[in-house]
Design brief:
- There is one protein chain.
- The chain is mainly alpha-helical.
- Helix content is 80%, strand content 0%.
- The chain contains eight helices and no strands.
- The protein is elongated, with a radius of gyration of 19 Å.
- The two termini are 13 Å apart.
Length: 234
């Protein structure tokens, strides 16, 4: 895999997520929407993950030493595995907890919608979808340069450098999560029923947990020393 291509995609995702996280947090503070909070934490987690990928890629280039005669190449896999843990815990589990909290709040106080700045989260989510789409487009473009005729599923499963597959899955998850949040927030505004907000938050949490599990499984095989494909050997 092209290191420069992977780095370009990671940097694009990092810049997009930092901007998105800031706007989402502002929207959450104005509306107290649980879907917006879940998406805010999601973007913060993604930003941290991309920083970890950049750090892992840089440390993996260190030269071999007497203590590490085979070099530090596998260190990038360790950081990618940490990414899956962060996405699972800080992203997925937090969103599920927030959904549970929002659901019980609705049961105790009765169904209620977003009380102020009603359409702010909708505007923020639409802007975030546009920004995330640019990041996803960059990851797709950089992946296509080396993917060849390999299917997307096989590319994610068989890639021996983790940066692009991780960014692809994160960006895909982010886009789907934003759409789920948009549906939850919009239905809450239309119906005045906060259960939609809780349902959107829960769906985001389940999505992030599923992506984190896939990343953990694929990265584990790399950590264990999975053999290169015939194309990699050639």
């Amino acid at each position: 895999m092209s290191a420069s291509g992977g780095t370009k995609a990671v940097i694009a995702a990092l810049l997009a997520n930092l901007g998105i996280a800031l706007t989402k947090f502002i929207a959450y503070l104005l509306t107290q929407s649980s879907s917006m909070l879940a998406e805010s934490i999601h973007s913060v987690a993604d930003s941290g993950n991309q920083a970890l990928l950049l750090l892992g890629g840089r440390r993996a280039t260190r030269k071999a030493t007497p203590q590490h005669p085979f070099g530090y190449g596998r260190e990038r896999y360790i950081y990618a595995f940490i990414v899956s843990i962060v996405l699972f815990s800080l992203g997925g589990l937090f969103a599920l907890y927030e959904a549970y909290h929002k659901y019980h709040e609705q049961r105790e106080h009765g169904p209620h919608g977003i009380d102020s700045w009603h359409w702010v989260p909708v505007a923020v989510l639409v802007i975030a979808i546009v920004l995330e789409s640019f990041s996803f487009r960059t990851a797709i473009k950089e992946s296509n340069a080396i993917r060849g005729r390999t299917s997307w599923t096989d590319f994610v499963r068989r890639a021996k450098a983790p940066e692009l597959p991780v960014v692809l899955l994160e960006d895909l998850g982010a886009l789907v999560g934003l759409i789920l949040a948009l549906i939850g927030v919009t239905m809450t505004l239309v119906t005045g029923n906060g259960y939609w907000d809780a349902a959107g938050t829960a769906a985001i949490g389940l999505l992030l947990v599923a992506i984190a599990i896939v990343l953990a499984i694929e990265t584990k095989s790399l950590l264990l020393g999975e053999a290169g494909t015939p194309e990699d050997v050639a």
